[in-house]
Amino acid sequence: MPSSCSRFRIPVKVARAMGIDRCGKVTIENMRGVETNLNVSAEPKRSKKKNRFTVLGWPAWVRENNIKMGYLCVLEWYDDMPALFVRDVIEE
């Protein structure tokens, strides 16, 4: 899912599967096993685009985890676990 150091959007299908309809929270577990709870907000639908969900606090999380612009952060989500897990961070 394309995002950046300044913004992280969750696709609608993933957000709905995670139980997020309008607003909610997401837990992100970094590679050291430290969990952070972040708020998720729905962005209003514009023209033909679908609703999008933005993770608030993402820029701070990126800085705290020393992820730089150009790195690829691979996240995983499992149906039976209420968190996103950082599987890998790849320096490109």
UniProtKB/TrEMBL annotation:
<dbReference type="Pfam" id="PF02362">
    <property type="entry name" value="B3"/>
</dbReference>
<keyword id="KW-0805">Transcription regulation</keyword>
<dbReference type="GO" id="GO:0005634">
    <property type="term" value="C:nucleus"/>
</dbReference>
<keyword id="KW-0238">DNA-binding</keyword>
<dbReference type="GO" id="GO:0003677">
    <property type="term" value="F:DNA binding"/>
</dbReference>
<keyword id="KW-0804">Transcription</keyword>
<dbReference type="InterPro" id="IPR003340">
    <property type="entry name" value="B3_DNA-bd"/>
</dbReference>
<dbReference type="InterPro" id="IPR015300">
    <property type="entry name" value="DNA-bd_pseudobarrel_sf"/>
</dbReference>
<feature type="domain" description="TF-B3">
    <location>
        <begin position="4"/>
        <end position="80"/>
    </location>
</feature>
<protein>
    <submittedName>
        <fullName>Transcription factor B3-Domain family</fullName>
    </submittedName>
</protein>
<keyword id="KW-0539">Nucleus</keyword>
